[in-house]
Specification:
4-stranded antiparallel beta sheet; 37% helix; 104 residues; alpha+beta; 4 strands
Amino acid sequence: MNLKNGNITVNYQTRNDYCGSCNRPIENAELSTVKEFDVSLHDIFHWTEWKFHLENENEIRDLAEECIYNMISFYSVNSHQTIYLCKGETDKVVQVILNKFKIK
């Protein structure tokens, strides 16, 4: 897991599903190369009240994925791109959340 300077690096890809000029669907759109996005642990930890969701790991996973998608969407992609998290990236963030908030 790559934690650096209070961030966790998340790998993702994008696909341009619509033309930026005419807004028409792009047939056979291809995925981009793998990109990296550094998500602030501070932002993750303050995304929601994680302590209220610790009993349900599936709920934590859904919220973590929503958090990651929203941050990448806001800072790194345009409205014509679809984000695809690489395999295991959500699990990395969930593990960081569980390590921070779960009472052992």
